[in-house]
Design goal:
single chain, Rossmann fold, seven-stranded parallel beta sheet, two-stranded antiparallel ribbon, 9 helices, 15 strands, 35% helix, 17% strand, globular, disordered N terminus, decarboxylase, transmembrane
Length: 347
């Protein structure tokens, strides 16, 4: 923080007995809330980078910790000359010592292509990485936010899903390194809160899309957009009747910040309650990019949830948060970013 002003006219005033708010005492005028030191693990991913952009706009000092397995340095390169920004190449599976006020723990591969590539590493990131960051929070007294996932609900038997639903998850399936890993991360987070009095927050994130996503990460929106731009058939798995909800990344980031700054532990569903089948999504992508694009059906993947839709009543009531950007508004913004990157691939 910058040095306090030395002028006697400054910010300190002594109030007399008749001032508003009660009797005599020391009051302060004009003092801004001091900036925070914030760490964002996984901050070079597309959600993390969007979060960093928002936090930097608020005068905070931000440290990004990322091992660049799925994150890209290009996502945060525009901050590198800022003295209040630091970028550390580090894997959260190993401990790290920092002095910060808040920890946004995003580090973990989040797409099936990436987390199935090395499932043991994925669950180590969810368990050991979360333990390390919770231990850091305990030692330095930082507030901790875990980004969990709608995958904790598995292939749900309740629709839409409320935070009170316990889920229907296959504990030994090909997706369990991520699904059960995040469930364990939530357990650890709540145990540190109950047992060590750590201030914690839990966000259960539903399908999110936007600029800076990995182009070939296997998630449905990025798949369809990249395939349509490359003039390849859009691949729909199964019969295409599976449903998902899609939120634009800036809406999610607003929700994460509202949760961190609020007084409620969580968990909170953060997602757009609008619902699309895979076929409906493919048609929206076609309309946005290329009406002549074709659709190709393939066998479904194992343990793919049949339906996914958040009940966000809790977030609306307690965080005063809900998504603002519709799929038809947000998708063109993502397409612009992907088009530039696909063209650079081909040049």
């Amino acid at each position: 923080p910058s040095a306090a002003p030395t002028s006697s006219s400054a910010l300190l005033t002594i109030s007399g007995g008749g001032g508003g708010g009660g009797g005599g005492g020391v009051g302060f005028r004009g003092l801004r809330k001091p900036p925070l030191r914030i760490v964002v693990t996984g901050g070079a991913g597309f959600v993390g980078a969007t979060l960093v952009d928002k936090l930097k706009c608020a005068r905070n000092s931000v440290i990004v910790v990322d091992n660049f397995f799925t994150g890209r340095k290009e996502n945060v390169a525009h901050h590198l000359r800022n003295p209040r920004f630091e970028l550390i190449r580090h894997d959260v599976v190993e401990p790290i010592l920092l002095e910060v006020d808040q920890i946004y723990h995003l580090a973990c591969p989040a797409s099936p292509v990436h987390y199935k590539h090395n499932p043991i590493k994925t669950i180590k990131t969810n368990v050991m990485g979360t333990l390390n960051m919770l231990g850091l929070s305990k030692r330095i007294g930082a507030r901790f936010l875990l980004t969990s996932t709608s995958e904790v609900y598995g292939d749900p038997l309740e629709h839409p899903q409320k935070e009170t639903y316990w889920g229907n998850v296959n504990p030994i399936g090909v997706r369990s390194c991520y699904d059960e890993g995040k469930r364990t991360a939530e357990t650890l987070t709540m145990d540190y809160h109950r047992g060590a009095d750590v201030e914690v927050r839990i966000a259960r994130i539903f399908n999110t899309y936007g600029p800076r996503m990995c182009i070939d990460d296997g998630r449905v929106v990025s798949n369809f957009v990249a395939q349509a731009l490359r003039r390849q058939p859009m691949t729909v798995y199964g019969d295409g009747k599976q449903t998902r909800s899609f939120q634009y990344v800036s809406d999610l980031v607003d929700g994460l910040v509202a949760l961190m700054e609020g007084d409620h532990i969580g968990p909170f569903n953060l997602g757009n309650p609008g619902e699309f089948t895979m076929l409906e999504l493919a048609k929206v992508v076609k309309e946005t990019i290329d009406p002549s694009a074709t659709i190709e059906f393939r066998p479904n993947t194992a343990d793919d949830p049949h339906m996914r839709k958040p009940d966000i009543t809790k977030a609306k009531q307690l965080l005063n948060w809900e998504p603002k950007i519709s799929l038809r508004e947000g998708l063109p913004l993502m397409v612009t970013d992907f088009r530039q990157r696909v063209l650079s691939e081909q040049s």
